[in-house]
């Protein structure tokens, strides 16, 4: 087996701030580049097809988000399991896990793809499309949906390619997808005038290019983690189901994070449609193009702190763990305040990047962005804390807080806030949900510290009994 080379980083002794900075900067830049692909798509659609085009794409976004979450879940879990096998010299088992992950992703995306392609109109209506937007949503659905399988291939393969020792090739896959999407968007939407259909076609082609590059690597270029021919016996299938189930369990936080964005978009579309019509959905769609940037900032902080926290957790060095957490939370608050300031003080600039100022959708967005920005500090802090709990193997609170912010608080906030505060309440729904989650995390941490202090006092004042 060709040995995988890794950077030598002493996570147990090197200054924590230097370690965090070394992880954070490249992680953040990579994630922001991924979000920029979606933003470029929205900017082209906004100027080429107007707010209705953005609204139509935003109706479809939950499907895209769930597919992305599925890929992140399977890819993260597969990467962990495969790396453990490689560390123990079980190369064939590692390859088998990669093969099982790719097979699962293919089946899990092809089945819904077939259903959606057979019933595009029903799918669009189920996602909350109005009759006015229906033709645009159906067009986008028909031209984008076939690319879901390529999207899943690329999402999973990037984890595996990095593990195989080829991070530059993984970056090349992402770069090809991003550049192709931007170039084809411009060509299809402006000179050819294909509008929403052109945006969908451009994204589908770019995802197919990235997915085929990634799959080609696993088939022909991989150093260690090449795909294997699967066995089709009953025993092999049962073994595969057990393995992929374990992979999905490990990677489930990635899926929940994406599902939060899907729930936000899905419920938000319904509420904005009910209160402000199609132009409201268009304004909310612009906000949703920016939301992945905020999510990626939080995710970059959590992923940068994770190896430092996990390593020192294994050594029992709680002083370094607490120092890392303080740096991560400080970075989250600082990053959240920077993004909040942009939305609060320059809503016209952020809106004007996507659609013409002066339209009703633009006016709604300019009015709402400062309220929407009230969520961002809580949003990034919550993601950071959830990542911290995962890093110290407290999966239950991590899952609980992810569900609180993703569904339990979010849906009631969208239903209640408009009744309490009118149109401003619609934009403040996310802030209410995230603030309630932050309060829940604070209460949980305070309770844990109280219990720890109580146990310490009991141990201190309870006399030892001799046998």
Features:
about 475 residues, mainly alpha, about 0% strand, disordered N terminus
Task: State the assembly state of the protein chains.
Answer: single chain
- The computed structural class is mainly alpha
* Backbone shape: globular
What separation lies between the terminal Cα atoms?
Answer: 57 Å
Main pleated sheet: none
Low-confidence spans: pLDDT under 50, at least 5 residues?
1-8
Q: Roughly what is the average pLDDT, rounded to an integer?
A: 82
Number of strands: 0
Radius of gyration: 23 Å
Percentage of residues in strands: under 5%
Enumerate how many helices there are, as a single number: 15
Order of helices and strands: HHHHHHHHHHHHHHH
* Helix fraction bin: over 70%
Write the layout of secondary structure elements.
Blueprint: H1 16-87, H2 91-118, H3 120-126, H4 134-144, H5 148-163, H6 167-189, H7 195-221, H8 234-315, H9 318-345, H10 347-352, H11 360-372, H12 376-391, H13 395-408, H14 410-421, H15 423-461
